[in-house]
Amino acid sequence: AQTVTQSQPEMSVQEAETVTLSCTYDTSENNYYLFWYKQPPSRQMILVIRQEAYKQQNATENRFSVNFQKAAKSFSLKISDSQLGDTAMYFCAFMKHDYDKVIFGPGTSLSVIP
Amino acid sequence: ETGVTQSPTHLIKTRGQQVTLRCSSQSGHNTVSWYQQALGQGPQFIFQYYREEENGRGNFPPRFSGLQFPNYSSELNVNALELDDSALYLCASRIGGNQETQYFGPGTRLLVL
After folding, report:
1. Is some CB atom of chain A closer than 8 A to the CB atom of B66?
2. Which of A47, A104, A105 lies closest to B101 in CB terms?
3. Residue in chain B lying closest to A91 (CA)
4. Average model confidence (pLDDT) across chain B
5. Is the pLDDT of residue A43 over 90?
6. Residue-wise DSSP of chain B
7. A96–chain B Cβ distance below 8 A for any pair
């Protein structure tokens, strides 16, 4: 069975600084997807960034980038130039290539401090 | 906003009752998944529907059941409610069985007393 671990329950960062959120996962699959989702307080969960396991190049979306280490089963999220609107719960998630269920980690609560 | 809507937004029930939650998927999306998110935790997969058929289920008892309609909207039914069923229930839709990106609704917050 697949598992997703986020070892940082809470983090904080100064506005305009850079922060990295950690995620590790366990799977015997070779093809899969990894995601970072953001859940702002009392607002909808939205996709931040996704990575396909067969792609070696790390995904990037504007200020958000990932460091995908397939052998180490590590998938960290880097947020550059942090903004107040980045304050949210961040969930790392995994999905097998058969498009079955998405498995979420326990989340990291990120606070951006003015 | 994602275009996925859920109703009601909040609900209070008592133990032993039954509840039905509804989800309207984003236009063109034929796959809907339901998740239970307890306070302070990540979402847990309940089940998934693809073209009106259940095609995946998590570790939830049979009292959690669902439906998907021809217009791809969906319902989650929970019978014999227990206190531990109190949670935020999220639905997520995606464009097809072979597309990985899900779009989440705002959720229904259920409180069981």
Report:
1. no
2. A47
3. B42
4. 92
5. no
6. --S-EEE-SEEEE-TT--EEEEEEPPTT--EEEEEEE-TTS--EEEEEEETTEEEEE-S--TTEEEEE-TTS-EEEEE-S--GGG-EEEEEEEESSTT----EE---EEEEE-
7. no
